[in-house]
Design a protein that fits this description.
Rossmann fold; 25 helices; 5-stranded mixed β-sheet; 10 strands; alpha/beta; single chain; Alpha-Beta Plaits
Length: about 525
């Protein structure tokens, strides 16, 4: 089957083309969709579609500009343009990009299917005329390592083998999975570029030619390259030592300007085992979770991991005490000890993440007033999402260290800022009494200051008025209560300080963009 990438800024039309065109019946699989040319371009190297079906007029990057850039990345990709305008300048521009077809909206299904059949025929003709092309070999290999279905994978392997005369089915092959790793600091000071996929693949090819015999390079995911290779004889294979691969890795690190980890598979015989080699190489690469820097990791380096849960209450208490006293050295020592234990005892990645999330939640609870005040932006961060995207324990350690350092600095600043203390006192008061009728005048009496003065202090420190903050707290609490379907909207309104249900509904809609009932439907 051939694959297609569909691009259109209109959500309804995009959904219609993705789900209501009988792609399976005409031998096409939808590789992905995008809402504009820029988004589509970022997916192109990863998806490697055979065909692109794109609207002409789109925001950010229109279809014609996207088409030009797509052809620069993959000169063989077939592009069909869609437009609601039968205008000569669009058709002329499309032809200049070597468009395979141009359809007018609304799409006529028979016309689309007929054009797709012509495009498929053209693809087949080009593949026959260029069966040994590197682009085709890469396309087959990409599909091999992404196809979960064994039967379909066999078909891709057969096609790849026919186009790979430099590989022999009778000799051993192996694979490696190389990642261009982000540095172990936070915020990340230097992230590998994400828009240079062809350059990364070509750079890997250039270096691999100096070390390997037969090989093929594909980008398996952003910042990760999969390389399948085969030595031409046993003498060459015997040179594949630890020193050989470490030298190769060091040259990659210098050329990419980034830390490189190589997960190396064991030798395999028979191309039906390419998938096994891929999984093994990737598993070896994931071992970097327990490493402090780039490395070459083989199956012999893989050791069992420990699945254990620790509530971390004592560590959270010690960290909180160190933060409260402003002892940065003690905070660093506590975290160094924690992550050293994770690496030495090989705590499984998922269990590590759970333990770290619990630790950060405990610190958030301990410093809730501070986080609701001067560090409210830190409170809004989705720690689970951030940490789950990190591939090494050292990156997670840097993230937690940054979190603790932000708290420590804020505590230090608060000690010399009396106005912040007043703002924090007001935040605490509101958190305790938001469900009651609460006025600025009543709050002013509680903190022994004038209403106008606390209005000014609160706005300066919190960036919003007291009344706006009260409303926000009430709406957030209401949103949580609405997730309990046993509570009626009237009961939720009364629970957050509103006697008038209609008024509560209007305020809720203004803040959350939906009525209470609509909000409840979205989350239940």
């Amino acid at each position: 089957m051939y694959s297609i990438l569909i691009v259109d800024d209109e959500a309804i039309e995009l959904e219609t083309m993705e789900h209501y065109v009988p792609w399976d019946k005409i031998g096409i699989t939808v590789a992905g969709t995008a809402r504009n040319g820029k988004e589509a371009l970022s997916k192109l190297a990863e998806l490697k579609p055979d065909i692109i079906l794109t609207d002409v007029r789109m925001p950010i990057m229109d279809g014609l500009e996207f088409g030009r850039r797509a052809k620069q990345i993959d000169k063989n990709v077939k592009i069909i343009f869609l437009s609601g305008h039968n205008e000569f300048q669009y058709i002329k521009a499309a032809l200049n990009i070597e468009a395979t077809g141009y359809l007018l909206k609304p799409i006529d299904m028979e016309e689309l299917i007929a054009l797709i059949e012509k495009v498929k025929k053209k693809c087949e003709e080009e593949q026959i005329s260029d069966q040994g092309g590197e682009w085709l070999r890469e396309k087959w290999m990409t599909r091999i390592i992404r196809e979960p279905n064994e039967e379909k994978r066999k078909d891709w392997i057969r096609k790849w083998e026919l186009s790979s005369s430099d590989f022999s089915a009778n000799r051993e092959f192996a694979a490696f999975y190389a990642t261009i790793d982000a540095p172990a600091d936070y915020p990340i000071s230097a992230q590998p570029a994400s828009e240079a996929s062809p350059d990364r693949v070509e750079l890997m090819r250039t270096i691999a030619r100096q070390y390997l015999d037969s090989f093929i390079v594909v980008e398996s995911e952003p910042h990760a390259l999969f390389v399948l290779f085969q030595w031409r004889n046993e003498q060459r294979a015997a040179q594949s030592t630890t020193d050989f691969w470490e030298k190769f890795r060091e040259e990659l690190s210098l050329s990419f300007g980034a830390q490189i980890t190589i997960g190396l598979s064991a030798p395999h015989t028979g191309f039906h085992l390419i998938w096994d080699a891929y999984l093994q190489a990737r598993a070896c690469n994931e071992e970097k979770f327990f490493r402090l820097g780039g490395a070459v990791i083989t199956p012999d380096d893989l050791l069992p991991t420990k699945q254990t849960d620790d509530d971390g209450e004592q560590l959270a208490a010690r960290l909180a005490a160190a933060l409260q006293s402003g002892d940065a050295k003690q905070v660093t020592m506590q975290l160094e000890a924690l992550f050293s234990t994770i690496r030495v005892e090989r705590i499984h990645r998922n269990f590590t993440i759970r333990a770290i999330i619990r630790l950060m939640a405990a610190l958030e609870q301990h410093f809730s007033m501070l986080l609701a005040g001067s560090l409210k932006d830190l409170l809004l961060v989705d720690h689970w999402k951030e940490i789950s995207s990190m591939s090494s324990s050292s990156q997670i350690q840097a993230y937690v260290m940054h979190f603790c350092e932000e708290i420590r600095k804020a505590l230090s600043e608060r000690d010399v800022d009396r106005n912040q203390a007043v703002a924090d006192q007001i935040v605490k008061l509101i958190s305790e009494r938001y469900h009651l009728p609460l006025t600025v005048e009543e709050i002013a009496k509680e903190v022994y200051l004038s209403p106008n003065y606390i209005r000014s202090i609160f706005k300066e420190k919190m960036g919003e008025t007291i009344l706006d903050y009260i409303t926000k707290v009430r709406m957030n609490q209401a949103a949580d209560l609405l997730k309990d379907k046993s509570l009626k909207v009237r009961e939720v309104a009364h629970s957050v300080g509103y006697e008038n249900v209609s008024y509560f509904c209007s305020i809720f809609h203004r803040h959350k963009g939906s009525t209470p009932n609509e909000f409840r439907k979205m989350y239940l």
